[in-house]
Design goal:
This protein is elongated. Strands 2-3-5-6 form a 4-stranded antiparallel β-sheet, with no helix packed on it. A two-stranded parallel ribbon has the order 1-4. The chain is α+β, with helices and mostly antiparallel strands. It has a domain of 294 residues: Outer membrane efflux proteins (OEP) (Up-down Bundle), CATH 1.20.1600. Belongs to the outer membrane factor (OMF) (TC 1.B.17) family. It is found in: Cell outer membrane.
């Protein structure tokens, strides 16, 4: 009774130590903890803040200035009207307003640039999120694959153990030799060693998953999702059309190109005159003191309003050079956009072709696993009936293990190409 209680407690503690983790939760954790995503969010927040505040030139600038001065003088010059020792104290207050009425449409252009910067940062954030999601999904499924490989080798090790025990029994009955027992034991040892090595691979994959999720400690997750084949049938032309219109990198580059065009407009607008309005309301108080006399107090009030205009005439060709440079930069941006579209189109073609081929490989490996599983059962029966030998059984057994590995790897590669396609068409991050 106590023995069963101890076993139950050990199993329960192991299960409790494992935290269940779905793919959706893994993606949420990865996005929450990733530093690049957090940095991109802060950059987007700055851009949106600038967009909301807008261009400061749209509003007047207002200032209030206060000053207090003290003068003490001992003047004995014969040419001055006021002689002797006196003191003068003054308090000045000014209320100033400046407003730009017209500056060659620079206000609207700068506002447009702020909108472009906000959109560009938004696309860059989406691209960063998509890259993190891709890493999480691939790491999640890689861990599942390594776990499935461990289960295959665990089953193989168990079969080898049963085969070893059966051979020992046959030896006691005089139906097997010591050589056959030794071969069965070697097979069991090889399978045990392979299982331990695979457990190391599984643990390494689990550790990498923890790293991708941004976890400081290595947690022993129980992954709940299954690795399956996508139900959607991909059409290359439809994928390419979506990529050109939805890909985050392309959209960010297009916004950057629009921003370059607005820079040309901004520099050209500097040819236009600037017209502004300014006003000043001032008040000053003064007190003058002479020795032996009562203080003399006074105050002055004034208000001024004016219109200013600045017309650019010549600045040594600097404006012309600035326009030429902005045009060249815009051309470079357009060429970079074309280059990016070309590179992504090639990447899409390669991923689509690989996906189609891998889809066929999955079906072939799946059938091969089924065939070798049946062959293993048949050769086991033949071995027990004396119509086969241990070498044939072992050969089929190893082929069965390898076919399972090939099937699992082909499934993982298929999923990886699917993720790549979804990232290229800009749909990987839409649900997160």
């Amino acid at each position: 009774m106590n023995k069963f209680l101890i076993i139950f407690l050990l199993i329960s503690s192991k299960l409790l130590a494992q935290s269940q983790l779905s793919l959706e939760d893994a993606i949420k954790i990865g996005l929450q903890n990733n530093y690049k995503v957090q940095i991109s969010k802060q950059q987007l927040e700055i851009a949106q803040l600038n967009q909301q505040v807008g261009v400061t030139e749209r509003f007047p600038s207002v200032s209030f200035d206060v000053g207090q001065n003290n003068l003490y003088s001992n003047n004995n010059s014969p040419i001055n009207f006021v002689k002797g020792v006196f003191g003068d104290n003054s308090l000045n207050a000014d209320f100033n307003t400046n407003y730009t009425i017209y500056n060659g449409n620079q206000r609207n252009i700068k506002k447009t640039q702020l909108n472009y910067l906000s959109k560009e940062n938004e696309q860059l954030l989406r691209n960063t999120r998509a890259s993190v999601i891709k890493d999480v999904i691939e790491s999640y499924y890689k861990t599942i694959i390594e776990r499935e490989k461990s289960l295959v080798l665990k089953e193989t090790k168990s079969l080898s153990k049963l085969r070893l025990n059966d051979t020992k029994l046959q030896l006691n009955l005089g139906k097997a030799s010591n050589f056959e027992v030794l071969r069965a034991e070697n097979s069991f040892l090889i399978d045990s060693s392979s299982y331990l090595q695979q457990e190391n691979s599984y643990q390494a994959a689990l550790n990498k998953l923890n790293m991708v999720l941004g976890s400081d400690k290595s947690k022993n997750y129980q992954l709940t999702d299954k690795l399956d084949v996508a139900k959607d049938e991909f059409n290359f032309e439809a994928l390419k059309s979506k990529m050109l219109s939805q890909n985050n990198e392309i959209l960010a580059k297009q916004v950057e190109t629009n921003l370059n065009r607005s820079k040309i407009e901004l520099i050209r607008s500097q040819r236009n005159p600037t017209i502004g309005l300014n006003s000043r309301l001032g008040k000053s108080y003064s007190t003058t003191r002479f020795e032996g006399n009562a203080p003399i107090k006074g105050n002055v009030s004034n208000f001024t309003i004016g219109l200013r205009a600045s017309i650019p005439i010549y600045n040594g060709g600097e404006l012309k050079r600035g326009i030429s440079e902005a045009i060249i930069q815009n051309k470079i941006g357009e060429l970079q956009l074309g280059e990016l579209k070309q590179e992504l189109s090639i990447e899409l073609t390669n991923a689509f072709t690989a996906y189609q081929n891998q889809l066929k490989a999955v079906k072939l490996n799946q059938q091969l696993v089924k065939n070798l599983g049946n062959s293993l059962q048949l050769v086991k029966g033949r071995l027990e009936s004396g119509f086969s030998n241990a070498l044939e059984y072992r050969t089929i057994q190893l082929e069965y293990v390898q076919s399972n590995f090939n099937y699992l790897e082909s499934m993982y590669s298929l999923k990886s190409y699917e993720i790549t396609l979804r990232k290229l068409i800009g749909e990987l991050d839409k649900n997160y």
